[in-house]
Design brief:
Two copies of one chain form a homodimer. The first copy, chain A, has nine helices and eleven strands. Chain A is an alpha/beta fold. Chains A and B meet through helix 1, helix 2, strand 2, helix 6 and helix 8 of A and helix 1, helix 2, strand 2, helix 6 and helix 8 of B.
């Protein structure tokens, strides 16, 4: 059985202009690997209604799960929820359950729930809410698309609640070895080793430190014994 | 005249598994914004031959430029060059100009140029080399696709040489204002302001600090006078 697959969709002009440095991709990649879901593709797109709807549709057809980040706040550039709804031809409006959550939050803070804040209660029909323990405004799951906030602390909190509800596969195990030779010397023996363990993946990540070349070789797979065996062989090849 | 557009394609299993945190996207986003090229989409995909060839073709058709990072080293998982060639139905082999560059580099280091290292001289027919002042192995430009290394120092050095050769547009100017109110209070007036300046883009990036909400409002556009005027209006609206 192969693991469930996933794509991530990061939505926001600010990432593409370099104004904001995305942190959610790295967080999601690590969390999904631990949970046994294979992140297979990431896309970053602008706050563009058609691009959002089309990309959601494409990724939703292709992968078990789609995780989005960004564009669900109260301002005019927060257009993710409406366009995810559009991708599924689903009606969207202020929903009473989401509104009640916001109302309770603003009552506690002594703030009025104005028109802008009410936009955050716009949830597509049939979607399940994703809890936001930080600033209340919920994310949602519609079909296989999980819509979450872009602010990293909120994205991470939403994901922490969501992930245990998703079926994972075998977590991918990995071991790495730092070899103090140039990749050009490692490449041949490494390719031979990789050919003998077709169920494992072998990556080579070069570095340069104090003027000397080296590489981290990473062996990954779902079977611990095979990863162990390959790593022992690799260590023997490059014993110093 | 609108600016040239660009997509970035990050290639590598290690980014998707969370083993490595990508740094090139942020660097490229900032560099292109300064150069007046609009980064419109980023994709991250695995070391998968078909995915690389198909995605290169799709992005090459859609944007003025495509910048790739990753997968041009000497190991078996470095398959970018071959699959970019495949995307354009172009033959690829060890090319004498690239081989001469590598030979000179390894002669200086006293290393032999073995079969693995020679893979880095595989360059598609008709491609222009991109200089690598750090570790010699060149990138290349084929059509509108610029193929560069994944190691951040090398990616940045290659880009620094490449970018001045590409025609840029009007650099996008931006100003930002930190407002100490919740986004829900900012959203209404901000949307009105945005509607009065249709040539500018207005972004709102919320934060939470010491328990208080706020947002950075960013106004962007190619006309400095318009950005100034909108910023003065914005400051007046939220004077404290």
């Amino acid at each position: 059985m192969s693991n469930p697959t996933a794509a991530m969709l990061v939505i926001g002009d600010e990432i593409l202009s370099g104004r904001t440095r995305d942190a959610n991709m790295y967080h999601l990649a690590c969390a999904l690997t631990k949970h046994g879901i294979d992140l297979t593709e990431v896309r970053v797109i602008a706050d563009d209604p058609r691009a959002i709807a089309q990309t959601v549709r494409t990724l939703s057809d292709r992968y078990t799960h789609v995780f989005t980040s960004g564009g669900i706040g109260p301002t005019h550039d927060d257009i993710t929820a409406d366009n995810v709804a559009r991708a599924f031809d689903t009606p969207i409006d202020v929903r009473s359950d989401a509104r009640a959550i916001l109302q309770a939050h603003y009552d506690r803070s002594g703030l009025e729930i104005n028109e802008a804040r009410l936009r955050m209660a716009r949830i597509p029909a049939g979607a399940t809410l994703i809890d936001n323990p930080i600033s209340a405004a919920p994310g949602f799951t519609l079909g296989n698309v999980h819509v979450m906030a872009g602010v990293p602390a909120i994205f991470e909190a939403m994901l922490a609640g969501l992930l245990p509800t998703l079926t994972g596969g075998a977590p991918i195990l990995s071991q790495s070895l730092e070899i103090h030779r140039g990749e050009g010397d490692i490449a041949g023996p490494l390719a031979d080793l990789a050919a003998r363990y077709p169920d494992l993946s072998f990556g080579s990540y070069p570095f340069q430190r104090n003027g000397a070349y080296g590489a981290n070789i990473v062996i990954r797979g779902s079977k611990g014994a095979a990863v162990d065996a390959a790593m022992i062989e690799l260590s023997g090849m490059f014993a110093e």
